[in-house]
Each structure stands twice: as C-alpha cells, then as structure tokens.
Amino acid sequence: MTHTEHLHGGDAVVSAFTAAGADHIFCSSGSEWAPVWESLARHHRDGLPCPGYLDLTHETVAVGMATGYGLITRRPQGVLLHAAPGLLQGSMAVHGALLAGVPMVVASSESTTYGDGPARTRAASGTATCPSSAAPTRSPSRSPSGPTRRRASTPCPR
C-alpha cells in the first residue's frame, strides 16, 4: 500500500496489528469494532496476511489469553476491548501483562456521548464544549424511568 492511498479505519487497525507482528487479535468488544471485523473479512477473502481473530466472552479473558500467548511467543498480540467499562474490566490483566513483561497492543474505543445527542466538540483552545439543547434528556446515571435533565451548556464537565 502506498502512502498516497487512504485507509479505511478498520484497515488501519488491522494493518497496525499486522505491522506489530500480532498473530491474533483477542477481542471482547462491542459493536464499535465492526470496521475491524469487516477489514478482517476482506483480508481473509482476498488472501491477505492478517492476524487471526478470537471473539471472547470477557475483557479479562481476552487480555489473559493474549498474555499467555505473548509469554510463549514473545511477540506482541492485539487486544480489542469495549469502550470505557471494557477497558476498566481488562485493566488489571493489562497490569499483570506489564509486570510479566509481555508485549501487547491494546485498543479501546472512545465514546463522547451516551447516545442521546450530538457529540461534544473540541474548540480551537482545546476546551470541551457541548451543543446546547433545550430538549430534556435522561440522565445516564439514572434508569430510563428516572428524572430528566437539561443538557449542559458550554463548557462540558469532563
């Protein structure tokens, strides 16, 4: 692939894991990794080199399996974790891999909204701003039947 070609996001992630020498991608992810799955499917269809994919049931299991494989091969393996709580779930296993000196490439997605409206944006100054809205939204820390709140005006709390 030349430097002038544009990569699809999923292709960029698969290329990065391939360049790192990962034999496998150990994954406990949500739907945010669909572009990676599509890229892996295209690579397999076209006979292009790419890591194998293991879809696992829990983040700690994914990181633990990558750790064991990395201990044996001494090559970095890829790990895809679900946004926020998924990374938190896998964090102790990542710390264990660090202490054991196991090479690993871990990726977790980022979510800037709770799915109830437009994402926050970054102003030129680097401060976070939120779109103002008079429409009430449910508080993410409450149940769906809980009280509503008004969207914050700029700047947003972190």
What does this molecule look like?
With 158 residues, this protein is of the alpha/beta class. The chain is built from four helices and eight strands. The protein has helices at residues 9-19, 34-46, 59-73, 85-100; strands at 24-28, 52-55, 77-81, 104-108, 121-122, 128-129, 136-138, 148-150. Helix 1 (9-19) packs across helix 2 (34-46) and helix 3 runs parallel beside helix 4 (85-100). The chain starts with 8 loop residues before the first helix and ends in an 8-residue tail after the last strand.
List keywords for this structure.
disordered C terminus; four-stranded parallel β-sheet; single chain; 158 residues; 8 strands; 18% strand; alpha/beta; two-stranded antiparallel sheet
Q: For the residues shown, what is the average pLDDT? A: 78
**Radius of gyration from the alpha-carbon trace, in angstroms:** 19 Å
Could you state the oligomeric state of the chains shown?
Answer: single chain
List the helices and strands in order: HEHEHEHEEEEE
Residue share in helices?
A: 25-40%
Number of helices: 4
Write down how many β-strands occur, each being a DSSP E stretch of 2 or more residues: 8
Could you give the distance between the termini? 39 Å
Portion of residues in beta strands equals 15-25%
Q: Kindly report the spatial arrangement of strands forming the biggest sheet.
A: 2-1-3-4
Sequence stretches where pLDDT stays below 50 over 5 or more residues? 125-158
- The general outline is globular
Question: Major sheet, described briefly?
Answer: 4 strands, parallel
Structural class, by secondary structure, is alpha/beta
